[in-house]
């Protein structure tokens, strides 16, 4: 029993959360490490624990094969190092045929075209054309009603986050993100966002209390927030509104808390915040 609980703790250390309609929780499957269980065993574990969503960071055919027998919804990742190749329409079509159409029985819901690509990086100019080509290929496979292309950002793209209603993308990020948001709007896709209260807390401990980051603050602050996660999420929504994305929904594609290696990092705190966060998604932000 202790082995199972330990495995669950490891698998839940990075969590994918969806804030669209009925709130639900999934897990991020990285596949890195030693002495890992088989991919089928991982999927069977998820099914036994009622985990209905998974994010995988690359098109691993082993895990896709294991997911055939499940009813688990999937965020399928496109690694950053292949983005440039997918700016070619035929290559993107081949990618979709191999990893999406061939696994149409798998409940793939979103394609994360790149993860935390930063403006000015070598991959940044490839994100939007790769998204467009992937979505066109999805449509050609008649899967457009089932699967949407998006990309996963991190919160470093937000130039101002407090108060949350004044959230805005940084000047450096604005030119990069606006065309992407236009694509999301026209395609009816959500924005994927990796939201880690831990990093915001560690980088600004003079202004952010640990209780606020851990959901244990008594009462709300002066702008109506009881916890940092909600404030961070709403600042992204506010930033989206300012670039024409007022109707774009956000899927929180990663969140978590470290078990060691930094200020405030411990296994106990990790278990505490993940337990609260999982319960919290049944509600909503202010």
UniProtKB/TrEMBL annotation:
One of its GO terms (biological process) is carbohydrate metabolic process. The keyword Membrane does not apply. InterPro entries: GH, Glyco_hydro_17, Glyco_hydro_17_plant. Pfam families: Glyco_hydro_17 (PF00332). Its EC number is 3.2.1.39. Residues 1-22 form the signal peptide. SUPFAM superfamilies: (Trans)glycosidases. Keywords: Glycosidase, Hydrolase, Signal. It catalyses: Hydrolysis of (1->3)-beta-D-glucosidic linkages in (1->3)-beta-D-glucans. GO terms for molecular function: glucan endo-1,3-beta-D-glucosidase activity. The keyword Hydrolase applies. Belongs to the glycosyl hydrolase 17 family. PANTHER family: GLUCAN ENDO-1,3-BETA-GLUCOSIDASE BG1-RELATED-RELATED. This is glucan endo-1,3-beta-D-glucosidase. It comes from Medicago truncatula.
């Amino acid at each position: 029993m202790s082995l199972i609980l330990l495995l669950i703790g490891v698998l839940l250390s990075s969590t994918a959360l969806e804030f669209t309609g009925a709130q639900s929780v999934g897990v991020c499957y990285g596949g890195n490490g030693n002495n890992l269980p088989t991919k089928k065993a991982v999927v069977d574990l998820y099914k036994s624990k009622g985990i209905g969503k998974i994010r995988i960071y690359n098109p691993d055919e082993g895990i896709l094969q294991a997911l055939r027998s499940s009813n688990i919804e999937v965020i399928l990742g496109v690694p950053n190092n292949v983005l440039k190749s997918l700016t070619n329409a035929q290559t993107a079509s081949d990618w979709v045929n191999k990893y999406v159409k061939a696994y149409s029985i798998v409940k793939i819901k979103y394609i994360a075209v790149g993860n935390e690509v930063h403006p000015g990086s070598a991959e940044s100019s490839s994100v939007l054309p790769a998204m467009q080509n992937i979505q066109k290929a999805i449509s050609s496979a008649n899967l457009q009603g089932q699967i949407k292309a998006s990309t996963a950002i991190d919160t470093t793209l937000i130039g101002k986050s407090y108060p949350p209603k004044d959230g805005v993308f940084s000047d450096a990020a604005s030119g990069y993100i606006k065309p992407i948001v236009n694509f999301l709007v026209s395609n009816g896709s959500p924005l994927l966002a990796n939201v880690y209260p831990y990093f915001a807390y560690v980088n600004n401990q003079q202004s952010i209390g640990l209780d606020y980051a851990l959901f244990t603050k008594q009462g709300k602050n002066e702008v109506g927030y009881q916890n940092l996660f909600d404030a961070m999420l709403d600042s992204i929504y506010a930033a989206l509104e300012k670039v024409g994305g007022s109707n774009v929904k956000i899927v929180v594609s990663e969140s978590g808390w470290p078990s060691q290696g930094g200020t405030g990092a411990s296994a106990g705190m990790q278990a505490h915040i993940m337990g609260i966060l999982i319960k919290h998604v049944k509600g909503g932000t202010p």
